[in-house]
Amino acid sequence: MMFENYALGKWIKGDGDGTPLFNAINGDEIGTASSKGLDFSKMMKYGRETGGHLLRKMTFQERGLMLKKLALHLHSIKNKFYQTSSFTGATKIDSWIDIEGGIGNIFANASLRKEFPDLPYYIDGKFAKLSQNNTFIGHHIMVPKEGICIHINAFNFPIWGMLEKISVNLMAGVPAIVKPATLTCYLTELMVREIIASNILPEGSLQLICGSANGIIDHATSEDIITFTGSASTGIKLKANSNLIENSVPFNMEADSLNCSILAKDASPGTTNFDIFIKEVQKEMTVKAGQKCTAIRRVIVPQEYINDVVSALGKRLDKTIIGDPKVEGVKMGPLAGLSQKKEVIEKIQQLEKTQDIVYGNINNFNVIGADKNKGAFLAPILFLNENPLKNTDCHEIESFGPVSTIMPYSDIDQAIKIARLGKGSLVCSIVTNDMKIAEKFVLGAASMHGRILILNESCAKESTGHGSPMPLLKHGGPGRAGGGEEMGGKRGILHYLQRTAIQGHPTTITSITKQYQYGAKQDTSGIHTFKKHFEEIQVGDTVITDKHLVTLNDIENFADLSGDRFYAHMDENSLEDTIFTERVAHGYFILSKAAGLFVDPKKGPVLLNYGIDECRFIKPVYPGMVIGVRFTVKEKISQEKKEDENYTKGIVKFLVDVYDDENETVMLATILTMIKKKNKL
Ligand code: NAP
Are 468 and 487 in contact (CB under 8 A)? Predict the structure, then answer.
């Protein structure tokens, strides 16, 4: 059987016999893969012009709902993937991380739609005041790049590796070509088949290359984005591609990482935290047979606890039953293939030159339910490096399997120094209850790590663990780890958008951003906005309210009602050395009085007040001053209909501009109201 490529809207077999692919458990050939004959340039053009075109027309809300639908669909058929996943050597838990972790990533990205406008593009940050009279301002918009993403992935998470990337670029409105590592591409192929068959994604938004993609990046243009996950050597080679350099094509690299975990001194043997540390290290060594980019490779422990750690870890590792993941009780499956096993053993042999194995043996171990010599099995190997500042191989050589090195430190400064010898890692963790140590370590190690987990008994139960990149947090690390960033919630999506500064009159910038910019034209001609349904409301619609004379009585009454008797409101003799010249009205009184002025009280489409985004008291208001409100529609955010509601609605943000008798603004706030739509569907 030959696994196929999905290109130009159809499934295509590659030319020739293809590369044979093997079951990691028994070495049986399960099929071949070939990308020969594919025209990469045509695929990229097709993706940009077909998928890109359709995705760019959709708003963030539409893209988010599309992803939610996809995630729900894949979740409903998730069991289809488990059997094929086991061919990669994955246990049930390993497969769960790959399959359901990947689908979870789509859900998480779909939910991010709530942080984006109902537009195909994004408005970044706040406006910049560029002129004295506010007739000329600046802002930033971010539009989807009109190129295509090429995702070049590693072999270890054939599903998660694809889904964590495409959910981000699809949210951004950019199509993708996925190129999984050939070794395990059969599992990615199965997932892509289901995605394509679901018809949920627009045509051309996802293509797949099973087999080599050598040469593809030669066709990249300036609007394309390349992401790479794999070994540093391949990554560096690709990054140096002259076409990428000449066209400034972004290249996001996630490469080898010598992640570490630190046991702090307070987590001494016999404490709960010591046990938490041992459990975490053992888990990270054996989950996915240590083939995780985030796995703990360096175990940094206080000198005086070395023997306890070696012994406790050894005891826990003894419980790691190795074998065919289908057999009950098996805790660790084989590596993904014999080629990987060979590579890992070569690295173990290199490490052995400067440090000793204190647990495990590359030849002598038991395997249940499978032939040890046919499958890619390997036992966990634990090294001890007594002098990690001098023997530095453990900070340089990544053995991508169940292999870690224990090393001692004298004090926390030295622990930081040793952690930093990894020259840049995806993640490190420290187990401690001591907040001072936690702070010192984090501040000392942060510049060399993409993520830091501070683990202790207060969070261990709910902790997602050292090795799990979370969709809402940045994944990626500096230096050796490639210097890239993936996921990270909203930040990940912005990676696929082009940020452009725009300058002009506030009215022009309002019309482009669909957000009212201070100083833009206001439309005061219509009925009160509270009488309008969501669809009838336009950005810029303004209510100019009645005026109110602020009195000392207002201040007294508000103080009585709220209980806020702060001296500046109550005591005129206390104002020396303050900015106030008289008893000043409470800021919250001004805000409340503003509501009294702008609210239209009769029952209408407005359902409720949702909250306040920003509020600034700009100028003191004293008794005798007269205030009024310019109440302007700033932004509209449509909401999805909930099943249990018989109406539809949206959020309208209003700019509340309270001004005084000199026409100067005394308070600015953005309030949110929930307003019904006319249309009930
Ligand atoms: P690899 O050998 O570097 O391959 C990575 C990917 O690059 C594969 O899809 C490979 O395709 C492709 N590739 C190689 N040469 C290419 C070329 N000239 N043009 C286009 N694509 C090319 O890495 P691996 O063995 O699959 O993965 C293991 C490594 O990945 C480990 O070092 C691990 O630390 C790292 N990793 C890092 C992360 C992270 O997030 N930082 C995650 C997982 C793994 P073929 O398979 O067809 O050769």
Answer: no
